[in-house]
Amino acid sequence: MAFVPLMFAPGKASQFDFSHEDVEIAGRPVRVADGALQTRRS
């Protein structure tokens, strides 16, 4: 595994993370998706 630092001007970079979770709703197993958008301002 390698880490490569990236440099961007303010407001020029964003990242979207997506995942899924297995949960139980009303006694039934359900797979739900979630995501997060992160932007860099400085």
Key words describing this protein structure:
42 residues, two-stranded antiparallel sheet, elongated, mainly beta, 2 strands
Structure description:
The model has no long low-confidence stretch (mean pLDDT 81). This protein has one domain (1-42). With 42 residues, it is mainly β. It starts with 13 loop residues before the first strand and ends with a strand. The chain has strands at 14-25, 28-39.
| Largest sheet features | 2 strands, antiparallel
How many structural domains does the protein architecture include? 1
Which strands sit side by side, in order, in the main sheet?
Answer: 1-2
Gross geometry: elongated
Number of continuous helical runs: 0
Give the % helix.
under 10%
Low-confidence stretches: none
Number of strands: 2
Strand content: over 45%
SSE string: EE
Q: Which secondary-structure class do the elements indicate? A: mainly beta
Q: Rg to the nearest angstrom?
A: 17 Å
**Span from first to last CA?**
27 Å
Overall mean pLDDT: 81
Summarize the structure.
Helix content is 0%, strand content 57%. The protein is mainly β.
